[in-house]
Here is the input.
Amino acid sequence: MKAIKVKKLYNGRLNSELEKADVIIDGEKIKDVFSEDNAEKYELYKDTEILDYSDYYMMPGLVDCHVHLMFPGNNLWGNVYGEYIVKNWSEGEINIMAFRNAMNALWQGVTTMRDCGSYKYAAANVRNAIKNQHLAGPDIVACGAPITCTGGHCYYMGGEADGPWEIRKKIRQQQKDGADFIKLMGTYGGTIGVTKTLTFSDEELLAAIDEAHLRNMKIAVHSCTVDMTEKLSKLNVDTIEHTVLCIADSSRNILDEKIVEGIIKNNIYTTYTVCCVKGNIEALKKLIDTGKATQADIENYMANVSYDELTVENFRFQAEKNVPYVVGTDAGWRSSDFKTSFYDNLYVMERNADSMTLIHASTLRGARAIGMDKIVGSVEGGKQADMLILKKDPAKDIAEAIKKPDYIIKKGCFI
Here is the structure.
């Protein structure tokens, strides 16, 4: 056993902190947590090896609720899209890319992640290799290919299904193949050439939700339109991905309180990918500055800037209304880099929400949203020993504190 002494512990629960904390680690698990002025506990563990970080702060390892491990996430605009990867890379290359990305995220402090869609179970393959101790890495919650209509968003991953019974069969097959949860594409997204509309009829949507829950699987639904977010706010989905409430069309109220009320009433977690287009904007801006950009590139740049502004406004509104949001980076997608994406998201989010709430959203609340809260998400006895030790106080500026974590502990081991 080892006792880690820290200046202050933020254990992952909302507004919970402990001054001069001792955290007892026994193998991969946390055995006990107490304040150093607890004489009884101090006596009980007096012979335990002490690791003195009494000038540092501790919080749980980060939980990223939305990534795509199969994508490189650092490409320049126009280079490597998912369609290109599926067509030109071998399955082995895709699996290696997925593991590389998982490790890059771990070095950023992300000890648990949920992969929201990959080709031929690339994320699940890495998950299994880590679980079976062939590789070291973060805990991964994985779906299969996102379920979409024929020619819908991310169709190239292999999740196309049309009609209620095709969708039900696809869900049954994914559970058989080892998927942890179901990802459904509710609307279009960034896939090239996809019609900008809702993906499924109401009958299909309800069938997907029913079948997933019938099989005790959570369902995450991608929503990039206010119409779909409104539909989902009235249903018993588990998480809404991207959770767009804002639209550029001024004919509709872009910040709808009724939608927010529905999300809260139905206990739905909302996953914010507030920086998923940041890399796109930067790459397109560089291209425009060279003078080599086409008119299409310029239009893409303006569309990304507009979407980015609306997404931030969307998050501000929902944070004010106390929507149970979690952090998802969309790392891997386009130019969202696994090495920096969590910091990038928190940098934006903390300008619209307080750091104590963001500590909770980045850890225990995120773990609850993805069904991992009995294992990870908080620094408490019986939980897996996944923690960050930080020189800077995350309650004052969480983004800067986790930008380069001083020490990362995964399953009781410093990495």
In short: Confidence is low (pLDDT under 50) at residues 248-253. The two ends are 18 Å apart (CA to CA).
